[in-house]
Every structure is written in C-alpha cells, then in structure tokens.
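in:
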C-alpha cells in the first residue's frame, strides 16, 4: 500500500472544493428546466423535502464513509466499502464509484467545452445581429462535427480535447491543484451569478416587444415560486425532484467519498457536509432560478419558456437575449454567463477524476501525473463517440445510464450497507465523530428508514423505464440498418395521426393536432390548450433515401414514410450501452487485479 501524505490545505479549500463538486452545470441548466417542466412552484416543495430527507442524509453517509475508509489508506469506493463489511462483493459494488465518474466526465466535459466555445464566440461578436432562430441554428451546427463555425475543422472535437487537456493538467497537480481552482472558480461563479441574477430581478417588462408583448420577467419568478400543493400527490414530480437531488449534490457517484477520504480521522465532517450541501442549494435555488427563466420570460414570455424549456435553452436562447442589452453589454453578459457555466463545470469534472487517481495510487503506486493522464485517456476514449454521434443519441445514453441509473443504484446500495450492514449505531457515531455541530437525532432514523425507502421507491419505479430504454421502445425504427423509415409518435400516447403538408426531395413535413401548456395569470395555474404542430423528417438523397408519402396523405405512427438506406439511432444507442458495459467490466477487472495484488502482499485473504 502506498503511503499517503496528501491532504487538504485548509478547511475553506475543502468546503469550496466539495461545493464545487456539487455545484455544476445542473444548477443553472437542469434545475430551472426541471422546475418548469414539473409545474414551477409545484416542483419546489417535493424538491426541498427530498433535499432534507434524501440529499442531506446521503451527504452524511458519503462523508463519514469516505473518512472511515481513508483512515485505512483507501481513497476510492471499492476498498472504502470493503473496509465497512465482510464479503468480497462490496469492492465490486464500489466499482460504481469509479465507473460513474469516468463515464459522466467523458460527456460532461463535452458540455463544458461548449461553454469555452461560447465565451470565445461572445467575445468575437459571433451572435451580434443574429435572430433567435439563427442562434438556435448555430448550436445545431456546432454539435454537428461536419460543420465549423470558426473555420477550424472539427471544431467541436478540438474544443472538447482542449477542455479535457485542461482538466487533466489540473488533476495532475493533485488536491492542491483542485483546491486552487475551487478557491478561484467558486467565488467567480457566485460573482457572475449574482450580476446576472440582479438583471433577472430588475428586467421586469422592459424586454417586451411587438412579437412578445406580454413578456415579463416577474411572471417567470412567480411561476417558480408560487407553491402548488397538489404536487404532493403526484409521483412524477417526486421522481423528478429526487433525480435532481442526485444530479445536483453529486451523491451516488463516489466523488464525495474520495474527497472525504483525505480528511483526517478526527476532523469534522458533519458541518462540512451541511455547509457544502447548503452552498450548493443557495447557488441552485437562489441564483439558478433567477437567471435563465426570468430573463427568458422577460424577453420571450412565460408561455414560450414553458413550451420550449430544455437543457439546450441556455445555449440556443441566452446569446440572443444578451444581444438585446446592446453590443457592449452583450459581450460582458456572454462572458459572465458562459464563464459561470465553465467554472461550474470544471469544479465538478475535476472531482470526477479523483476516484480513479486515488485507486491507482493506493493499489498500484501510480503517481498523480500518471493517474491523471490515464484518467484523461479513458475519458477521451469514452467521450469521443458522444461528440461525433451526439445527434444520433449516444450522448443521451451516457447521460441516462451513467448519469442517472448508476447514481440511484449505487446510492441505494451504499445506504443499505451503511445502515444495516455496517450498522446505524456505528454509522451515527462515525458521522458525529469530531463534529462541530450537534446533529438532530431525527436524522439517525431518517437515514435508517426514510432514505432507503425513498431510494428503493425511486429504484423500483424506474425499472419499467430501464426496460423500455434497452428495448428501444421509444422508437418504431428499431432495426439498425433498414430499407424503410417509419413515422414516430406525434404525441406522447401515440394516438394522434398526422397529415403531410410538404414533400420535397430531402424532407417531409407533417401537421398534427397537439397540446401545449400556457400559464393562466388569473388562476396562477398551468392550463393546456390545443394547437396545430408540425414534425419534419430530413432525408439524404445521396443514400437513396426518398419519401414515399404524398401531399395530403394521412400518416399514422409506424407508417412507412420513406425508403432507402437508413442507419437508425437504435444502432448508436446500442453502441453507447456496450461502451458503458465495457468500461464497467474493465474497471471490475482492475479491481480484481488489485485484490490479487493485496492477497499476494498479505493485505487480503482469498
């Protein structure tokens, strides 16, 4: 076993680094979208409850588990968990704590690279004079590797590699490098967020226009912060709230364990966990809710925001909105906004490298430099497919299986281990060891009963969705290589038919009756109204793809609408799942080799 002398330089540095691990792109991109898609104020109450009964307990569990394993010289989850229970299985359960970080970092750094690129484009004035549609089109061109917005060939790949190299270089400096970035990045993030939040609070109706005469930033704030108590009986909202807690606090990943493993045995972890957790919530709930939604509602109207809320909205909309502030302020706003997102991203992605590095240092005496660059290489191998095949859905497979499912599975298993195998009595004592605050005794029973029940419910409720994903039940074009292309569902239930309104050599446009959500200011409720929507399918004549429908035809879901040579997204999704499975198997083999090495050295028994 390698001798560990590395530790955090200061408590402030540790808390900022841990907060930086939690404060990420999800605080500013995912939280507002989840809130809007789940009813605004209807989402907030379940979200805050989940934070208190699931988020905080998991932080206590992971901080104390990490510190406990650290005193035995273990700095990543395989052998941190192995120290807590008898049985060979737990070291392999701990594989999740390395696998998730490499898999998530591989595509997370791609989003992070978008922010770098958008800072550049904000400074050089790329977005000036662009319409909102043109800004949205710019994003679509950027994620298509065959296009370039700067003249640099394969621009998105170049920015991705630069971003990954920066992360790897900082990681090679060890905890000191991470701590320095956190001490600089977190204050700048909060400063940039505060500046933009003030603008969101003061925009009011000044952004209204002839196209959007009802635009009002206050509508966005009222929508987010008007409680809707009927959501307490809606399981969909609870599942969304629980998922956001996982995403925002970075629990169920293994990064918290790794950071806490470098804390000294009698150092406080209770106050550290609470401090990092509430700092994250301040950034997410206060700053995160005061920027994207109010500013977008202030220029485009709340109804537009409700109908178009999505993860890419910050990239497809915000540059256009900043242009309304004038050319000079638009540059500063772009730098502040995308700079904020970059600092939020890099403080999280750096944390994702530490479990692999810690494991390889512990088990194979690898240096920080070797550990960091090997992590970068793994992330690059795993990540390039998500960049190249972004539009084919491979990116989404990584986000779903590694960024969602893996977190829930690991969090549930580690909670069972902590409460029922390690034992809640020992676990509660470990949480309170060296604590600077007295924790409410109720949390002992929340950790023992409420948290595992809630996690178990989330887990079981998600299984049907896992099956649907594996079977590609979200598409009728299941065949990898097909001679026909079929129309997908026009509505969620698949009950609507469509009518062909435009046919050309390279596309088919189909109209169908749909519904959209709008906000009723009088009742302060979201209501559903009917309208005519359109779906357009693009085809490539060079591959022999040709529409088989004609103008005026009625099209049902699963009807053949084109013939030719098609490689469907189901193929790329399968490749994504196989890459993730291969990574998990690879790390399991590495853990097994480490176990054999320990046996040979007399540090473990067969």
């Amino acid at each position: 076993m390698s001798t560990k002398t590395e530790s955090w330089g200061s408590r402030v540095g540790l808390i900022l680094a841990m907060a930086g691990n939690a404060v990420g792109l999800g605080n500013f991109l995912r939280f507002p979208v989840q809130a809007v898609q789940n009813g605004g104020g209807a989402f907030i109450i379940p979200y805050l409850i989940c934070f208190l009964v699931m988020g905080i307990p998991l932080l206590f569990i992971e901080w104390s588990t990490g510190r406990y394993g650290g005193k035995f010289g273990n700095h990543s989850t395989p052998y941190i968990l192995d120290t807590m229970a008898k049985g060979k299985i737990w070291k392999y359960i701990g594989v999740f704590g390395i696998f998730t970080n490499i898999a998530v970092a591989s595509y997370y750094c791609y989003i992070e690279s978008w922010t770098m690129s958008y800072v550049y484009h904000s400074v050089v004035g790329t977005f000036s004079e662009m319409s909102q549609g043109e800004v949205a089109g710019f994003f679509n061109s950027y994620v298509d590797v065959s296009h370039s917005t700067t003249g640099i060939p394969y621009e998105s790949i170049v920015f991705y590699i630069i971003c990954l190299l920066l992360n790897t270089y900082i990681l090679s400096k060890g905890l000191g490098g991470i701590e320095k970035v956190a001490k600089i990045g977190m204050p700048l993030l909060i400063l940039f967020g505060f500046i933009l939040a003030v603008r969101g609070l003061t925009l009011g109706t000044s952004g209204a226009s002839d196209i959007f005469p009802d635009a009002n930033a206050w509508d966005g704030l009222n929508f987010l912060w008007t409680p809707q108590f009927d959501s307490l009986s809606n399981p969909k909202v609870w599942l969304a709230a629980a998922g956001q807690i996982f995403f925002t606090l970075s629990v169920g990943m293994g990064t918290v364990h790794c950071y806490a493993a470098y804390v000294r045995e009698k150092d406080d972890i209770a106050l550290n966990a609470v401090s990092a957790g509430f700092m994250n919530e301040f950034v997410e709930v206060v700053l995160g809710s005061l920027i994207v939604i109010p500013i977008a509602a202030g220029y485009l109207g709340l109804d537009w925001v409700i109908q178009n809320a999505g993860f890419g909205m910050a990239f497809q909309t915000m540059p256009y909105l900043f242009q309304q502030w004038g050319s000079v302020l638009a540059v500063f706003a772009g730098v502040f906004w995308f700079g904020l997102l970059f600092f939020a991203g890099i403080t999280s992605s750096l944390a994702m490298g530490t479990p692999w590095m810690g494991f390889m240092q512990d088990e194979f005496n690898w240096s920080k430099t070797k550990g960091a660059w090997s992590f970068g290489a793994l992330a690059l191998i795993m990540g390039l497919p998500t960049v190249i095949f972004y539009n084919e859905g491979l990116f989404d497979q990584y986000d779903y299986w590694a960024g969602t499912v893996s977190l829930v599975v690991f969090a549930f298993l580690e909670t069972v281990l902590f409460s029922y195998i390690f034992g809640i009595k020992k676990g509660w004592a470990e949480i309170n060891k060296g604590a600077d605050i007295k924790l409410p005794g109720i949390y002992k029973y929340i950790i023992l009963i409420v948290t595992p029940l809630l996690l178990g419910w989330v887990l079981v409720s998600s299984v049907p969705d896992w099956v649907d994903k594996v079977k590609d039940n979200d598409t009728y074009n299941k065949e990898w290589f097909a001679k026909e292309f079929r129309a997908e569902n026009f509505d969620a239930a698949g009950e609507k038919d469509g009518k062909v309104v435009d046919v050309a050599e390279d596309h088919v446009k189909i109209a169908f009756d749909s519904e959209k959500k709008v906000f009723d200011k009088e009742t302060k409720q979201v209501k559903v109204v009917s309208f005519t929507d359109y779906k357009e399918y693009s085809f490539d004549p060079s591959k022999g793809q040709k529409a088989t429908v004609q103008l005026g035809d009625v099209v049902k879901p699963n009807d053949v609408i084109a013939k030719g040579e098609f490689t469907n997204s189901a193929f790329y999704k399968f490749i994504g799942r196989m890459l993730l499975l291969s990574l998990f198997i690879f790390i399991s083999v590495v853990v097994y080799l480490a176990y054999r090495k320990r046996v040979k050295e007399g540090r473990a028994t067969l």
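note: The radius of gyration is 25 Å.
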